[in-house]
Amino acid sequence: MTRIRPTRLGVEALIFFTLLLVGWLATPYSNLFFLLLAFFACLMGLGVLWALGNLRGVGGRVEDFAPQPARQPILAGFVLDPGRRPKEQVEVVLELDDGEGTQRARVGAVAVLEHRTALEGVLPPLPRGIHRIRSAWVRSSFPFGGVLVQRRIPAPERIVVHPAPLELRRGAPRSLVLAELGERLVTAGARVQPSGLREFRQGDEARRVHWRASARRGSLVVLEWDGEAEEALEVVLDRRADRKPFERALSVLAALGLRAQELGETLHLCSQGVDLAFGEGGRPIRELLHWLAEAEPLAPEDPPPPPCSPAALRLPFTRDLEPEARRAT
User: Fold this and answer.
1) Among residues 6, 89, 209, 211, which one has the fewest Cβ atoms lying within 10 Å of its Cβ?
2) Is the pLDDT of residue 187 over 60?
3) What is the pTM of this model?
4) Cis before residue 194, ω within 30 degrees of 0?
């Protein structure tokens, strides 16, 4: 599919051509204006033919996008093939659907395309989410810049933009209260599973109380857990949260998922609608990042996350957990 349209310079040239035509009809200097009109008409016609010929036979494709972090420039790779002859001033443009319209972004350009070439370009930062690619075009306004010719090339259907991961390192400032916790959780011990019930003892945490069983028995009972040989980092994400803490929790999960991938660990995520292991022995971390890109907070009346180990990290963080994390740093 090939499109051709005038550029801004081309529109100005058409306006100038129209003024010359009016001058030719309104003044006695017909020969001079006729020569000018003929010259510009030939120039414009040759410009269109040269522009079409410059993209004739050009092929290419846009490479698949790896999941990209939000608020950072996006690297894009593409391959161009000039066909039989070298091409001049060729560039690639992506049209993205941002939900409110079409956003155009230049991926990259090459002055002279002589042979099949793999290139890289940079897209502007995008917000978290799944961004659909409407189309991709290879285009050129060579030789005069008055006519833009573009041809459609294959491209991926979407760009997955996951939350920008928080850094997990020691000595982090107060805004990164997960620094020490993150280091400890990535090397967490055995994942645990529920094994039975016992009577509540002094010193037991309130979150370990099994309230339904306690109501049936008439006394407090707690849920006990046994470990498995499987190594995993276990995280509970309660999506019943306000937007700001929810987005921060997603950034924490993105950081933990990427760290688990780096170290060959397994991350087990419990949340509304998901109870899966990612990483070593589980689903690819890429699927976790895809889920984080689409996740949205829920209303307070929605169901809680599925049961999980009491030793699991629970997100979003509550205020009573932040002093403990601050002491750890």
Assistant:
1) 211
2) no
3) 0.69
4) no
